[in-house]
């Protein structure tokens, strides 16, 4: 598993990442505050499950705008292939990232305010034409990671194979649950 020449890891412990994959895909997970990290751990778990390398950063579009600018500008050059940006309240991080990179950006609106995340959702999803952010549900860290995995699967057949397997298992689980329920309602 590639560690990446620019590992900006602040939090995550990468030692548990599955080692069997030789895929070079790399995702950047950026979040507006360390208070978003408990939520974003769900995304990291998905990447561990699929054996995909990632870096994690705390970057605020408002508190560290210069860092946000540099990160987004250099992300493609640094070898990232997808960016996940999570933020709450006036959540401009994903949009700011998307404005300065040719990479696909997935936005995670974080439920961190008195408005229950509706503010974050609208700030993330209501992008002007020309600068798309693929926005998942409020607190949708898991699906954000899964979408990133699917995007990477277009380039890496090994990853697509894992996505196919994942979806097969998901369907089998539901079929099993249905069978169990049929037995219980007799
Ligand atoms: N935030 C940080 N900088 C800009 C924004 N929008 C967001 C964080 C977090 C929320 O503000 O993404 O969800 C609260 O941050 P904190 O650091 O006060 O806990």
Annotation keywords:
binds 5-aminoimidazole ribonucleotide, five-stranded parallel β-sheet, Rossmann fold, 6 helices, 2 domains, 186 residues, 44% helix, alpha/beta
Q: What does this protein look like?
A:
The protein has helices at 37-50, 65-74, 93-99, 118-125, 141-155, 157-184; strands spanning 26-31, 53-58, 82-88, 105-110, 134-135. The protein has 186 residues and is α/β, with parallel strands linked by helices. The chain folds into 2 domains: 1-16 and 157-186, no CATH class; 24-155, Rossmann fold (3-Layer(aba) Sandwich). It has a 5-stranded parallel beta sheet, with helices on both faces. Helix 5 crosses helix 6 (157-184). It is globular. The termini are far apart. Bound molecules: 5-aminoimidazole ribonucleotide. 5-aminoimidazole ribonucleotide (AIR) binds at residues 31-33, 35-36, 60-63, 87-91, 110, 112.
